[in-house]
């Protein structure tokens, strides 16, 4: 599906769907996704803002960002620094293959109205809600009580040498890539199938938004808006190389009690290359 | 000072097949060796670095069949010269990223501007019959990147002479195959 053909089509409709967790757009963006040589570095930005990739809102803290090497080792982030509008860090790539850089969390969330009719929310912003805490912190008889099983994930993959599979394999938790298409092997002019899983199963009807870098210099974000098919996949062809921001949002009623809804949010920064 | 920003063409791989299927056999009796001549252009730039160059044979599906030459800064300590191999981005995807550098009999030092001959003596001997493409890709520090290609029919049952001109990083390639 082409970028231009989607302009204006589902933009209004989709903006009415309740956004699960991320009102703004978050990203972890690498300086490059492909390097060669035996001892190379990649530097990253992590931020939350409205414009892709224009850090003018707040920095995404680096503490929760994990880096996994092709062989599954935890990789130390170097020179990590939280700046005003963005965080930065480097990684040193000494193994050949694909590295995963990720923030992932899962939480119970509850929304209700208290006796005075005021909206309440649990847990607080940035906190993780567990079932044990839920039982003591949330009034079960409250008005309009809504309980959501929420998962968020912000991913980016980078590769030294040949792309490898291990770090791309799905975890089975929350919304994520299904591991069938390698995120560091994306080229213009080739149809790319991207599949998504929710808790390990095909995430059908996931809403996917893709925005190309350089939004600042366009009148609109020119977002591609796609919905996954029954197998949880979208098919997309990129005409232009560059960095792309992808957000996927999933919601259904197939939640474990006490939750009534299950939501997944997933962000991926992709670099599309030309040949 | 004047800067000119060249708009990327998007069609990076121009099909520059200038089909010069000439009968080379008539040349002064002396049998010409099987060879590929690669001419790197002279540049009038303040800071010139010899380009990285990859030469490889690809099949009809663009799959690499055989690497023929990779010229890069292979003498740098700690294999530091491998850092820029990815800039040969077509070759990198088709071959380089899965190769263990240096490649025996393939890797070599970078070459200066001028004509360079690659001996293709027995290069194609073990390759199944078919239509192939010989690709030459060059990428230069502080410069650009270009791919120039010519078709090859294997096995060589009659003399083949193919040449193609580049526009920026490669001046010309010229393939000669004798029976």
Automatic annotation (TrEMBL), chain A:
Claim: Signal is one of the keywords in the record: yes
InterPro entries according to UniProt: DUF4198
Signal peptide residues on this chain, from the entry's feature table: 1-23
Pfam families found in the cross-reference section: DUF4198
Top-rank lineage group of the source organism: Bacteria
Sorted UniProt keywords: Signal
Protein name per its UniProtKB record: ABC transporter permease
């Amino acid at each position: 599906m082409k970028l231009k053909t989607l302009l204006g089509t589902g933009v209004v409709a989709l903006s009415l769907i309740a956004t699960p967790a991320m009102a703004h757009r978050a990203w972890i963006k690498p300086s490059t996704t492909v390097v060669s040589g035996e001892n190379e570095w990649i530097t990253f930005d992590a931020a939350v803002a409205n414009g892709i990739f224009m850090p003018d809102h707040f920095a995404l803290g680096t503490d929760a960002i994990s880096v996994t090497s092709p062989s599954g080792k935890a990789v130390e982030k170097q020179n990590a620094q939280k700046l005003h509008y963005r965080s930065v860090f480097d990684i040193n790539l000494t193994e050949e293959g694909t590295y995963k850089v990720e923030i992932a969390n899962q939480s119970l969330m509850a929304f209700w109205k208290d006796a005075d009719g005021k909206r309440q929310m649990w847990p607080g912003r940035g906190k993780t809600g567990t079932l044990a805490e839920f039982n003591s912190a949330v009034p079960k008889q409250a008005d309009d009580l809504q309980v959501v099983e929420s998962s968020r994930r912000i991913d980016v993959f980078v590769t030294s040498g040949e792309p490898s599979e291990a770090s791309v394999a799905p975890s089975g938790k929350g919304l994520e890539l299904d591991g069938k298409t390698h995120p560091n092997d994306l080229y213009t002019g080739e149809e790319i199938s991207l599949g998504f899983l929710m808790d390990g199963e095909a995430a059908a009807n996931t809403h996917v938004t893709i925005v190309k870098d350089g939004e600042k210099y366009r009148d609109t974000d020119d977002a591609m808006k796609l919905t996954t098919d029954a197998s949880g996949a979208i098919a997309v062809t990129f005409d232009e190389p560059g960095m792309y921001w992808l957000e996927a949002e999933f919601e259904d009623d197939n939640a474990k009690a006490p939750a009534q809804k299950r939501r997944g949010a997933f962000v991926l920064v992709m670099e599309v290359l030309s040949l | 000072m004047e800067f000119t920003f060249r708009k990327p063409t998007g069609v990076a791989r121009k099909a520059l097949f200038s089909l010069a299927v000439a009968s080379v056999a008539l040349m002064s009796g002396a049998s010409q060796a099987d060879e590929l001549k690669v001419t790197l252009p002279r540049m009038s730039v303040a800071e010139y670095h010899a380009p990285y160059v990859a030469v490889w044979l690809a099949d009809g599906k663009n799959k690499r069949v055989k690497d023929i030459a990779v010229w890069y800064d292979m003498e740098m300590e700690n294999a530091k010269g491998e850092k820029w191999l990815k800039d040969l981005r077509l070759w990198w995807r088709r071959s380089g990223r899965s190769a263990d550098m240096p490649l025996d009999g393939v890797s070599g030092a970078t070459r200066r501007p001028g004509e360079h001959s690659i001996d293709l003596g027995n290069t194609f001997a073990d390759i199944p019959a078919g239509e192939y493409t010989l690709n030459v890709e060059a990428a230069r520090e502080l410069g650009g990147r270009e791919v120039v290609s010519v078709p090859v029919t294997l096995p060589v049952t009659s003399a083949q002479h193919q040449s193609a001109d580049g526009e920026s990083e490669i001046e010309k390639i010229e393939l000669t195959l004798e029976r």
